[in-house]
Each structure stands twice: as C-alpha cells, then as structure tokens.
Amino acid sequence: MGAFRHHTLVAPDIADRARPGQMVSVAIGGPASALVSRRTLPIAAASPSGTYGGTVDVIVDPGLDAGMAWLGDLRAHDEVAMIGPVGRAYPLPTSGVDVLVVGVGASAAPVGWLAAHLRDRGCRVDLTLAGPDDRHLVGVIEARRIAGSVTVLTGADPELGADLAARVRTQLRTSEIAVVYAAGRARHLAPVVEVARPFGVVVQCCVDEDMPCGTGLCGSCEIPVRADDGMRHTIRGCTEGAVLRGDRVDWAALAEELG
Amino acid sequence: MGAFRHHTLVAPDIADRARPGQMVSVAIGGPASALVSRRTLPIAAASPSGTYGGTVDVIVDPGLDAGMAWLGDLRAHDEVAMIGPVGRAYPLPTSGVDVLVVGVGASAAPVGWLAAHLRDRGCRVDLTLAGPDDRHLVGVIEARRIAGSVTVLTGADPELGADLAARVRTQLRTSEIAVVYAAGRARHLAPVVEVARPFGVVVQCCVDEDMPCGTGLCGSCEIPVRADDGMRHTIRGCTEGAVLRGDRVDWAALAEELG
Amino acid sequence: MSDIGTEVEIGGLRLRVPVIGAAGCVAFGRELVRLGVQDDLGAIVTPSLTARTRAAAHRAVLREAPSGLLAPTVRPSYGVERLRPTALPWDHEGVPPVIVSLAGNTSGDFAEVASGLRRGSLMRRVAGVEIQLASVDAKNSHRPFAYDEFGATKVVARVRESVPSGVPIFAKLCADVTDLVEVARGCVKAGASALVVTSPVRGLLLDPATLRPVIDPASSGLSGPALLPITLRAVWDLRAAVRSGRLPPIPLVAVGGIRSGQDAAAALAAGASAVQLGTALLHDPDAAAAVVAGLVEAVRERGFDHVLDLIGIAHDH
Amino acid sequence: MSDIGTEVEIGGLRLRVPVIGAAGCVAFGRELVRLGVQDDLGAIVTPSLTARTRAAAHRAVLREAPSGLLAPTVRPSYGVERLRPTALPWDHEGVPPVIVSLAGNTSGDFAEVASGLRRGSLMRRVAGVEIQLASVDAKNSHRPFAYDEFGATKVVARVRESVPSGVPIFAKLCADVTDLVEVARGCVKAGASALVVTSPVRGLLLDPATLRPVIDPASSGLSGPALLPITLRAVWDLRAAVRSGRLPPIPLVAVGGIRSGQDAAAALAAGASAVQLGTALLHDPDAAAAVVAGLVEAVRERGFDHVLDLIGIAHDH
Ligand SMILES: Cc1cc2nc3c(=O)[nH]c(=O)nc-3n(C[C@H](O)[C@H](O)[C@H](O)COP(=O)(O)OP(=O)(O)OC[C@H]3O[C@@H](n4cnc5c(N)ncnc54)[C@H](O)[C@@H]3O)c2cc1C
Ligand SMILES: Cc1cc2nc3c(=O)[nH]c(=O)nc-3n(C[C@H](O)[C@H](O)[C@H](O)COP(=O)(O)OP(=O)(O)OC[C@H]3O[C@@H](n4cnc5c(N)ncnc54)[C@H](O)[C@@H]3O)c2cc1C
Ligand SMILES: Cc1cc2nc3c(=O)[nH]c(=O)nc-3n(C[C@H](O)[C@H](O)[C@H](O)COP(=O)(O)O)c2cc1C
Ligand SMILES: Cc1cc2nc3c(=O)[nH]c(=O)nc-3n(C[C@H](O)[C@H](O)[C@H](O)COP(=O)(O)O)c2cc1C
Ligand code: FES
Ligand code: FES
C-alpha cells in the first residue's frame, strides 16, 4: 500500500468501543528509546472480535518522523502500549442523507470505516481521497467497495488544500449533500470548511495534528474554537476532538499557532 | 542456552581476520535510541565463509543492562553497525603443551573457540566454565567436544573468583600446565592470576570490562599495567587488550578504579 | 500497599506516597481520574495560574529532543480571576491533594494570584502553593526570577505574605544557574517551605526545514529523561549545602527526568523527600504506580522499612 | 568533495571542513587514522594536557545517561613535561591539524602547560590551543573557571601571554551558568580568538545497587545528544549578544550533542562557525563524514553555495 504501513493491533477493550473518528494513543520506542512523546493516530478500523480478540487498525506514515518510522517498523507479535479509544467520534446522521467524505494522506485513515458506517445508515457516500502522490493515499481499492463514487486527487502543498476545496465546492453545487466529513491536517481542512460555509453545510473535521500525550494531560494539542456565544477559547484536540465542527474552529489562529 | 543469547552476525571482513580473544564493537540501538555507548563483545567464533559470507558469533547477556537487552532482542536480518576485530588475540603456543582454559559467565564466550585452536596445535586442554548458576554458563556441551576435560563451577560473587582460583591451584599442582588462558571480569581474573604466580605460570587474561567505544578513542577502558621496568602506566583495554598477561596488570588498582 | 511505609511530610503537607504530578503535565487532575491513575500520586501540581487568563500567544507546541521535550515556558494559562469557589478547575471527585502553581512577571503578579486564591473559600481546596520561578522577570531584562537571588527572594516573600501560614510554599528553582545554593538560600529566608528542582532547563531547537527557532528561544525549556543527571546533581548540591551549613535545613523535591522507581530512589538518596513526574506521565500515564512500586522495592531490598530511610543516604560514606 | 564550499577560518586557523574532533573523544588522532576517518575532520582537539602527568585517580569511567554519557571532568592526563619534540603523541601520518587542549587548577598551571608547548619546536605542530575552562579553580572553592568571569579571564590572559600571537586560542565555556555572555565577554577581552560551547554540563548519577555516586559529583559532566538543545541555546545567546553589541564579534564553535548534518546546520544557523563532535564519534567513528555530507546538503537545499552562508541565519527574520 505505497508509502504507508498498515498495522492490525490486538486491543479488545479498545476495539469494542471505538467508533470512526476516534484515535489510539501509542507509546513510542522501547525502554531505551530517546523518543518521549506518544503518537496519537486515527483508528482506521475496529473489529470487536477476531482470532485474537478485538483488533484495531492504524495507518502509519513512516516518512513523517523518527517516531512514525519506529511504528512503521513494528512486526507481528511486537507489543505496544496503547490507550484508546481517544476523543470524539464523527457524529452520524440518523437518516439516510447524501454525504461527502474527504480525507488527505495518512490522516484519511478513518474515512473508509466511516463510509461503511454511513452506508449502513442508508447514506449515499461520495468519497474523495487526496495526497501528494499515489503512494501517499489510503486504501483506494477498499474505498471503491464501500462508497458510491470515489475520486482521487493528488498534488503538492500548498495547492492540495485548495484543489480539494474546489472539488468539494463542485460537489456541493451539483448534489444534495447534507454534511461533509473530512479528515486531514489543519492546512487541508481549513479551505474545505471555507468553501462549505456559503452552502450552510456543516463539515465534521477530524483534525489530525500532533498530540504528544493523547490523554488530555499536556495541553499541547489545543485548538482555538468559537463557542455559540462567539467567545474564543481552546479545547484539547485529543480528548475533546479530534472531530470538531469545522465552523467552530478558528482556522486562522490554528494555522498561526502551528507555524 | 539458558540466560544468554547467541547471535551469528554476517561480517566477512571481520570473520576473515578474527582470532580468539579479539572482540567486536557494536553500536547499540537504532537512530532513535537513548543509548550512546557501544558494546564491545568478545568474539565467540568466526567462520570465514558461510552461506552469507563470513560470520562471527557473539554471546549476549540480556540481563546485564538496557544495551545488552537490546542486543539480545535482535532478530534474523536485523542490521547492526559493527567494528572489528578489535584488540589483541590470545597468543598461542608454538608447540603442544598442556594448557588450562577458564572462563566466567558470558565473558567465557571465546574459550570454546580458543580451546579448539589450542587442540589443533596439539595442546591438551583442560577447560573450566564458571558462572553464578547453570543458566549463566556458555556452551558446556560444545566444550566437551573440544576439551580433554571440562569442569563446571557455579557460585555467587564474591566467592566465585576464589573458588575458581582454588580450582586453578589444584590443577597447577597436579598437572604440567604450561600456560593458563582466562576470560572474565577483572574480579574473577585477579584471584586466578594470584594463585598462578608462585607456579611461574603465565595467565593470559581476556579482561572483559566496559569498553564504551571499542576503538581507542575514549580512553575509558584503561587498565593499569606494570611495564618491564616496573613503571606503572595504563593501556587501553579495547585496542591494546583485551588479552593481557595477568602478571603485568595492576589488579588492585584496577579493582579500585572499577569501584 | 505493603509493609513498607511511604508517607512523607513536606512543610506540613502529608503525602500518602512521595510522588507528585508535575505542573503542566497532569492538567487539573480530571484526566488522571478518567485514566484511573489518581491514587498513585500523593499530590498534583496544577498548570501555572496567572493573574489574568493568558490566551495562547503561541500554541504550546512540544518538540521532541533527544530523550526530552522542548516546551515553551510561557504557555496559555488559566487566570485566577476566572476561578469560581464553586467550580474550581480541579474540583473533581478523586483528585489527590492539589498544589496550585503560580506564575507572573513581577512580584506583584504573584502576590495577585496568591491573593486571588484567598478569595471566597478557595484556599480550603489548596494543599500547597508552588511558585514557578522560571517565569521571567519583566523588571530584570526578562530573565527568570530563579536566576537571581534578589528576584526569587522578592517573589517568595510576596507570596508568603499572601498565603495563610498553614499552606506550604514550594519554590521551584532552575538548575541551570551558576550558584543554585545562593538562590535557594534567598528562597528559604523569604519563607519557602520546600524547594523544587528543576524547572525545564533553557534549550533551543531549530526547525530543520526553515532553520528558525520552533519556540521563542527566550522561553523554551527542556524536560524529560535527558534532565535526570542534572536534577540529581542539583538535589545533591542542595542537600550537601544543608549538611555543610551553607543552607538552612529544608525539604527538597526532585523534578526533571524521573520515570522509574530506580530514578526516584536515586533522587531520595541524593536528598529529596519526594519526586515529581512530568513527561514520564505524558509518556505513560501509568508511570506513577511503577515509580511507587520500584521505590518500595528499593526500600525493601536495603532492609529498610520506610521510604524516609532512603533520604540523603548517598551522602553517607 | 562537491560544488559547495566548506572551508572556514576561525581566528586565523583555516579548516577544510567546519567539523572538529572534540577533546577527549578522538585521543591524539592515531586511532582516527587507523579507522580511516581522519579526512572527514577539519581539525582535532587533544585530550586536555596538564603541567604534570595526572595518573588515574579514578578510572575515567563513563556511565550511560538517557541520550548521554556521564564522564569525570578530571581524568588521567598527559603531562606537558613528558612531551618530546621528536615524538609528540599526535605525531602520526595523516592526523588533521591539532588543537591542543590545556587543563589546570590555577592560572599558573595553564601558563605552565602553554609555556611547555613553546619548548623546542613543539608549537610548529600546534594549530591552536583550547582552554578547558571546565577545569576547577583550586583558589575558588574548586568551582570551574568557566563559572566565574574573573577566573576565566585570568586563565585566558595567562595563556595568551604564553602562546605565540599567531596561534589561535579557543576558550571552552560551560553553558550551565547564569550569565554566559558575561563570562564570554571576559574571555574575549583577555584575548580569546574563538569561544567553544559547551563543556559537559554538571550531572550526577548514582549506582543503582549502592545508591552512591558513580563519579565524584564535584566533577562529573554530561555529554551527548541530550545536550543538543542546551548547546544550540548557548550558541544562540552568544550570537544574539554579538548582534546586540553586548559581546564583541568573535567566532563561535558549537559542541555538545551534535551528531548529524542537520544538527550541525542548526548550530551554524544559530551562529557557530564550526562544530565539534565528541560522543558522536564514540558512538560511530564514521559520524564526521555523515555530518559533513548533511551540512553540504543543507547548504545546497537552500540554494547557497558555501557553509558560511548558513552562519547565523536563524537570527534573521
Ligand atoms: C447528517 C448531518 C446533517 C447535518 N446537517 C446540519 C445542517 O444542515 N446545519 C447545521 O448547522 N448542522 C448540521 N449538522 C450538525 C449537527 O448540528 C451536529 O453536528 C450533530 O448532530 C452532532 O451534534 P453534537 O452536539 O454531537 O456535535 P457538534 O454540534 O458538532 O458539537 C461540537 C463539538 O465541537 C467541539 N466544540 C466546538 N465548539 C466548542 C465550544 N465553543 N466549546 C466547547 N466545545 C466546542 C466540542 O468538542 C463539541 O463536541 C448535521 C449533522 C449531521 C450528522
Ligand atoms: C604456551 C605458552 C607458555 C608460556 N609459558 C610462559 C612461562 O612459562 N613463563 C613466562 O614468563 N611466560 C610464558 N608465556 C608467555 C610468553 O612469554 C608470551 O606471553 C607469549 O609468547 C606472547 O608474547 P607477546 O609478546 O605477544 O605477549 P606478551 O608478552 O604477553 O605481551 C604483553 C602484552 O600485554 C600488554 N602489556 C602488558 N604490560 C605492558 C606494558 N608495560 N606496556 C605495554 N603493554 C603492556 C601489551 O598489550 C602486550 O602486548 C607462555 C606463553 C605461552 C603461549
Ligand atoms: C507540557 C509541559 C507543561 C508544563 N507546564 C508547566 C507549568 O505550567 N508550570 C511549571 O512550573 N512547570 C511546567 N512544566 C515543567 C514541569 O513541571 C517539570 O518541571 C519539567 O517538565 C521537568 O520534569 P520532567 O522531566 O519530569 O518532565 C511543564 C512541562 C511540560 C512538559
Ligand atoms: C570520554 C570523554 C572525554 C572527554 N575529555 C575531555 C577533555 O580532556 N577536555 C575537554 O575539554 N573536554 C573533554 N570532554 C568533553 C568533550 O570535548 C565535549 O565538550 C563534550 O563531550 C560534549 O560534546 P559531545 O556531546 O559531542 O560529546 C570529554 C568528553 C568525553 C565523553
Ligand atoms: S495531546 Fe496532550 S493534551 Fe492532547
Ligand atoms: S573503549 Fe574507548 S578507548 Fe577503549
């Protein structure tokens, strides 16, 4: 599957409770590792039962940093310390509506699983997978089995976000989309939320940025949001996100803070 | 093989040149490791040719520290950065004499290989393997195939060194031993050298103490020795040892420095 | 938990176990309860509170350093003006005793936060106060208070005035100063009940792509296992100063790089009465239980029956 | 090696590449030649020489710390009295330019070692002199010279008097002081040609079995990757002081935790003209080649054509 590695991890407690949009927080390296931060990854799938009990799947981009490289190198029977499910899942519609699902790079991990849930609720699912190139896309083939239509979009930053947004705008114009589900880095999500705004369509965003603990302890994953009363404050991306309504997030402030 | 792990490492350049008593210096951990020191290990065997080219064998005591634990966890096809052969080999007799070979714990790694070389030169080899318990002994069964007689000695520190020395004294008294070859920690070697002194028998000691670089750069493996003129000075255990004539080493000073 | 005693007392504060959650690394305790690990900590320290809420000037971004984390020392903070006696951020069922950390940029700021805590009946939920002396002094070229005996002393004295005498004051120092004992002495004289070392040490990393600082160099600090030898040295120096009479007797709390029972035992042996865990809990929220168990084991192995027996033994010959 | 220029000049000393073997981590160069890595270093620094040979009071034992090594700063040393013009310890075919490191416990000691080097024609084989200011001052409670502007200044001045004016003097400082710029300024005024930061920072580890120090706490220092953020911060502070006029212009050399081309590029961007590698070479004697290659790559990626173009760019906005 190209540049990414796909791991299936045995974790019955997590698998039984996990829903699309939730994450696992993983300790990196062994006892002699120089890496201190955990990595918090979106769950790509959860199977409550299996040969070894429940499993969760994650997708790793080993090219990202030393910690991801370590995760990528894990082999069968290796053990990792994992906490989950972490955070808020994608809220699902109660009735079968038309939805648009978009995901970028390895952050798109949950979209296939989400699309299956949406389909099971009777939604018509339109899915777009984006990434810098073909090697950095998650499961296109699996996606075609689930979604009504699958579009692939490749291109380099910073254009990728704009291209994706343009594609979403076209969809919103030409179909009866009730909600957009998105998964990606903040820089890819912000333009999508922006184009959806005039349509009054909510974008449920799984904001995949660094979460060094994934347990709410460190406060380093804070995301600036606007509450209903317009007051700006911050919430913890790991425990109170990662799925947030796009119109609530202060994307400009977030972009500045991410540097 | 009990508490120890035995690794065969593909290293044609080293295998072609290695002789018993020499070592390999191994970098520990991957790029994200918190461990900075190398580990310098006695070579347990070298096979100049094999399926993959030449190989060297090492014996690892994973219980020793985090670095050894990492080495112990290595699996087939893992790669390690290795330098060798490091240091001075055991000098071999030109004629077939009676020799006594003793080794303690994982430091005894080279004794089987050494015994085979001695046997090939026509020596009668008497071998003693010592350790805290049966699980911390190297290859007793292999040893029996090589040596004329094999004795096993187990016991706890600090008595182990004295027990080993007592055994060596008995051997020196009752046989025509021309030279003693020993491999161990300084605390085990010193009593052996002491008992051999009155017999005028040289003990060739492979002094297996910490060697953080194994290349002569750091100076942290220095061993106090007395030169022919009686002057005390120090030599680097890694590049100028690890095999040293026991009567040249200032064991009391070394013991103090090792703490 | 076992036949080994683990209770310690620091400036009047009794800790069931000598392991404390460090400021900024346990939030306000709610997450510890959710994770079910609250009982492994004798107390927690809150993220540093300021007089007024400090919004994220920068995201409190963490960067990985070798065996450490680089974090900004100036972080978004909760303002004491927002505290409501009926809804303290640390008011959750099961949270261990709470030590409130105070930050500011003038001694007046600190006094204001401390006074704010007295309002209403807030103090009843405060087991102690910790002073983040790594905060920078606006009146001294923005150098940390902890770098200067005079600055540190003034802050401690002002906080001491504003806090009821029954509430212990923990002065949190920086190990990366030329003369730690001198600063410590000032804090003790000004009324500190205990000394905590170390705050993160000054550090800098550049973004590999842009070669620009990832965090403001004036206020970014290194935490994590990399600090362990620095922390132990600082504790050793302070304890040695007490033994030699250069510093009045005062309990010490070790923080910086501690993550195992063995590390904690070393900290106690060097002279600490308790340890704080910061990044260890970020790396593994179950770390406190392992630290307590390892500490108990270290006590037992030596034939002692109380963790107090370890304190300072590294100095005995 | 490539179209990218790598030569730098520090206090008159030309280095083919801005990567130097750090004191005590490359012995006298013979082993580098044996390992075939001598050409990847622009110069080497010898283990610190003393006036008289210092036998191992303690074995110069190294202990592993998280991402670091703890080593005694007082080590067995080669006495300048033993130097023979015809058989210098660094007199081996292929050894790169040699900077001789000097240690002592009084400014007189340093002067004596420096004068010793003038004897015979020794100086002809000396490309520069580095002063180990982490050495402790017998006349100042055995605190390192580098902790005290006055002490450091005196040593540099005495060495400057004893060394021919064409030979550059590198003053090696300690980053773990309250005011690094103050000490640096003293050294520059006293005649230092360049500043080197950092010596190992003070650290302590206890033996887990005995809970006693493994190395004398008064003189044990932490080296290795754990230091990287501390080194970069120290270089940044000195460069910033030069830019703001608090420190006269002077070349800087970064040492402490550097092990990759990326680390070296960061050190240059922070303001260093060259880097030294210590534990990186103990961990991997081939490290210098990788550092030079990575540095060249960092220059090329940014469209520059010389490593000089990186120096100090982290300060530009
Ligand atoms: C199929 C579908 C169609 C929808 N169509 C529409 C529509 O047409 N128009 C429309 O407006 N909505 C629409 N929505 C969105 C809907 O109103 C809710 O998002 C959805 O029902 C889930 O509700 P919730 O309360 O769980 O999450 P949300 O309302 O999404 O809750 C917001 C979350 O974001 C975080 N958050 C954001 N701001 C703050 C803040 N200030 N303080 C604290 N936390 C904050 C919190 O974590 C919170 O859980 C639709 C949703 C779905 C699933
Ligand atoms: C079968 C056999 C029988 C022997 N019987 C005897 C015997 O009966 N009596 C006897 O005296 N010897 C005996 N020897 C020892 C013999 O003299 C030599 O050890 C052996 O021949 C090897 O010589 P060498 O020069 O390589 O090593 P050695 O002489 O062992 O060399 C000593 C090594 O130790 C180190 N070293 C020690 N001290 C110093 C120092 N001051 N300065 C620098 N380096 C130092 C060096 O690395 C040097 O290579 C015997 C050896 C063998 C193999
Ligand atoms: C994410 C994070 C946030 C922190 N916030 C604070 C704080 O608000 N106040 C404070 O005094 N120290 C703060 N610190 C410092 C820690 O309390 C502690 O002194 C430091 O991390 C060293 O300990 P450690 O190595 O166990 O993490 C913070 C550290 C981290 C990593
Ligand atoms: C084994 C060892 C020996 C050292 N010997 C000396 C020395 O003799 N003189 C000196 O000034 N510094 C000495 N140092 C310090 C190094 O030169 C260097 O300043 C320090 O190790 C930090 O750099 P690093 O992280 O690259 O190792 C020594 C360091 C080590 C690890
Ligand atoms: S990642 Fe630490 S609080 Fe969210
Ligand atoms: S181990 Fe470094 S010189 Fe021998």
UniProtKB/TrEMBL annotation, chains A, B:
<dbReference type="GO" id="GO:0051537">
    <property type="term" value="F:2 iron, 2 sulfur cluster binding"/>
</dbReference>
<dbReference type="InterPro" id="IPR037117">
    <property type="entry name" value="Dihydroorotate_DH_ele_sf"/>
</dbReference>
<dbReference type="Pfam" id="PF10418">
    <property type="entry name" value="DHODB_Fe-S_bind"/>
</dbReference>
<dbReference type="InterPro" id="IPR039261">
    <property type="entry name" value="FNR_nucleotide-bd"/>
</dbReference>
<dbReference type="InterPro" id="IPR019480">
    <property type="entry name" value="Dihydroorotate_DH_Fe-S-bd"/>
</dbReference>
<dbReference type="InterPro" id="IPR006058">
    <property type="entry name" value="2Fe2S_fd_BS"/>
</dbReference>
<protein>
    <recommendedName>
        <fullName>Dihydroorotate dehydrogenase electron transfer subunit iron-sulphur cluster binding domain-containing protein</fullName>
    </recommendedName>
</protein>
<feature type="domain" description="Dihydroorotate dehydrogenase electron transfer subunit iron-sulphur cluster binding">
    <location>
        <begin position="209"/>
        <end position="250"/>
    </location>
</feature>
<dbReference type="InterPro" id="IPR050353">
    <property type="entry name" value="PyrK_electron_transfer"/>
</dbReference>
UniProtKB/TrEMBL annotation, chains C, D:
<keyword id="KW-0560">Oxidoreductase</keyword>
<dbReference type="Pfam" id="PF01180">
    <property type="entry name" value="DHO_dh"/>
</dbReference>
<protein>
    <submittedName>
        <fullName>Dihydroorotate dehydrogenase</fullName>
    </submittedName>
</protein>
<dbReference type="GO" id="GO:0006222">
    <property type="term" value="P:UMP biosynthetic process"/>
</dbReference>
<feature type="domain" description="Dihydroorotate dehydrogenase catalytic">
    <location>
        <begin position="7"/>
        <end position="296"/>
    </location>
</feature>
<dbReference type="GO" id="GO:0005737">
    <property type="term" value="C:cytoplasm"/>
</dbReference>
<dbReference type="InterPro" id="IPR005720">
    <property type="entry name" value="Dihydroorotate_DH_cat"/>
</dbReference>
<dbReference type="InterPro" id="IPR013785">
    <property type="entry name" value="Aldolase_TIM"/>
</dbReference>
<keyword id="KW-0665">Pyrimidine biosynthesis</keyword>
<dbReference type="InterPro" id="IPR012135">
    <property type="entry name" value="Dihydroorotate_DH_1_2"/>
</dbReference>
<dbReference type="GO" id="GO:0004152">
    <property type="term" value="F:dihydroorotate dehydrogenase activity"/>
</dbReference>
<keyword id="KW-0285">Flavoprotein</keyword>
<comment type="pathway">
    <text>Pyrimidine metabolism; UMP biosynthesis via de novo pathway.</text>
</comment>
<dbReference type="GO" id="GO:0006207">
    <property type="term" value="P:'de novo' pyrimidine nucleobase biosynthetic process"/>
</dbReference>
<dbReference type="InterPro" id="IPR050074">
    <property type="entry name" value="DHO_dehydrogenase"/>
</dbReference>
<keyword id="KW-0288">FMN</keyword>
